[in-house]
Structures are given as C-alpha cells and as structure tokens.
C-alpha cells in the first residue's frame, strides 16, 4: 500500500481507537500535531481514512478496511495497463549489445567463470587462439578449473590454433577433455590473444601486457563471428 511507517501507525491506531480527534490521534501515535495535520489530508484523498464533525470538532476514523483491497486492485490494474509499454522498452533494450570488461588475474577468474555459467549442457564453445605460449599467461589453477567445469557440463570446446607445443598438447588430450582442435600450418600472423563464441556471446581476450577481456552479448555479433569461425574451420 506504500504506507510510510507514520501512516501505518495512524491507520492502525484509528482501527483500534475508532473515532478520535487529531489531537488525541497525535498523542496516541506519538507524532507532532503539525506532522499529523500535514499527513491526514493525503490519507483522506487516498480513501484510507474518513473525517466527520461533531459539535464543531473533527473526528477521524476508518470507514471500511476493504478500501485497502480496492486501492491495491486499482494499482494492480494500473500496472497491468502499463505492461505493454514497458515491454516495448524492454524489447528495445534487449537488442542493444551488453558489454562486460575484465582486467587482471581477478578479472580472468571472473571471465572464465562467466563463460561456464553462460553455457548449458551439450553446448559448444568455439575458440580461435593465436597465443602460442598460452601456459605462460594463464595460471594453471584457473585453466584446470575452467576445463574441469566445462567437462562436467559436457560442453565441447572447438579450437582453431596455430602450430605450437600447446596446440599439440591440446590435440593429445582432446578426447579426454571434450575438445576438437584444428591446427593451422601456415602462420602468417600470430596474435597474443583469442576469441571465444558461445551462448549468443563473443569474448575477446588480449594477453599483451596484463589480461584484458571483453564479453559482448549480441545475437548479431555472435552469428557473424560464428560464421567466420566455421569458414576457417571448414577449410582446414
């Protein structure tokens, strides 16, 4: 009902006391009379309390507690009428890409954790990695936790990687770690980062100085990057 603490005190006191003057009501509620006089007209306007006169004096009382129910129904109906307009704004906001930034080792932990949270059992994560010395940049405990939770959720990781000892290691453990990998023989350009495609999101990572990652949630960008990934995947 959006009652303030003072309004609730006034209402409950009137329920218990019946008809009372403002002076008596102020004493019972332990309120200053000026405060009470400022609140009573608004409560009358909202239909919660009534006022009557007897021998020139005003007495305040509760007419019908069912007015609370009526007020709630009116508010519910008002919200119901607003829903179509609110949904329009919601739909507009949902088509805008959502971007989350991650920095440093703490950010790296959150980054890999958010990927696992985003995917469901049976999903795939598509990864294109240019980093050859991957193990030098990603702490072992972060990587092991990520891989373990991915395996537990039965999520396959499809990787395109450049020739390196790390890529060969991933290929050797591919079956046990739910991984499919294709290694590029020609190494025209090597970059110190990678990107991952999953669950209507695309993640971009850079290891140049300290870890820096960005996850973009956008169906359009996801589909574009997925198409580019498979264009390379199917050629190798």
CATH T-level topology of the largest domain? Endonuclease, Chain A
Rg over C-alpha atoms, rounded to the nearest angstrom:
32 Å
Spatial shape? rod-shaped
Order of helices and strands: HHHEEHEHEHEHEEEEH
What portion of residues is helical? 40-55%
- Could you name the CATH class of the largest domain? Alpha Beta
Percentage of residues in strands: 15-25%
Would you write up a description of this structure?
By secondary structure, the protein is α+β, with helices and mostly antiparallel strands. The chain has two domains: 5-61, Arc Repressor Mutant, subunit A (Orthogonal Bundle); 98-233, 2-Layer Sandwich (Endonuclease, Chain A), CATH 3.30.870.10. The protein is 48% helix and 22% strand. The chain contains eight helices and nine strands. It has helices at 5-17, 22-29, 33-45, 66-94, 104-118, 140-152, 165-172, 219-233, and strands at residues 50-54, 57-61, 98-103, 124-129, 156-162, 179-184, 193-198, 201-206, 212-217. The strands form two sheets. Strands 3-9-8-7-4-5-6 form a seven-stranded mixed sheet, with helices on both faces. A two-stranded antiparallel sheet has the order 1-2. α1 packs across α2 and α5 runs parallel beside α6. The longest helix is centred in the middle third of the chain and has 29 residues, at 66-94. The radius of gyration is 32 Å and the shape is rod-shaped. It starts with a helix and ends with a helix.
């Amino acid at each position: 009902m959006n009652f303030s603490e003072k309004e609730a005190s006034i209402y409950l006191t009137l329920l218990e006391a019946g008809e009372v003057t403002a002076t008596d009501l102020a004493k019972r509620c332990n309120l200053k009379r000026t405060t009470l006089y400022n609140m009573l007209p608004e409560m009358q306007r909202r239909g919660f309390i009534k006022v009557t006169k007897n021998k020139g004096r005003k007495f305040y009382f509760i007419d019908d507690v069912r007015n609370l129910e009526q007020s709630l129904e009116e508010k519910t109906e008002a919200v119901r009428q607003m829903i179509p307009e609110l949904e329009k704004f919601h739909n507009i906001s949902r088509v805008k890409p959502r971007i989350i930034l991650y920095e440093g080792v703490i950010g790296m932990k959150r980054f890999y954790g958010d990927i696992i949270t985003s995917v469901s059992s049976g999903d795939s994560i598509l990864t294109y990695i240019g980093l050859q010395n991957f193990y030098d940049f990603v702490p072992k405990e972060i990587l092991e936790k990520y891989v373990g939770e991915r395996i537990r959720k039965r999520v396959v990781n499809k990787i395109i990687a450049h020739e390196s000892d790390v890529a060969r290691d991933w290929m050797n453990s591919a079956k046990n770690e739910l991984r499919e990998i294709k290694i590029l023989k020609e190494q025209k350009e090597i970059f110190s980062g990678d990107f991952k495609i999953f669950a209507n999101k695309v993640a971009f990572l850079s290891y140049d100085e300290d870890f820096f990652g960005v996850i973009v949630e956008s169906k359009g960008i996801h589909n574009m990057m997925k198409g580019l990934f498979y264009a390379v995947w199917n050629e190798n």
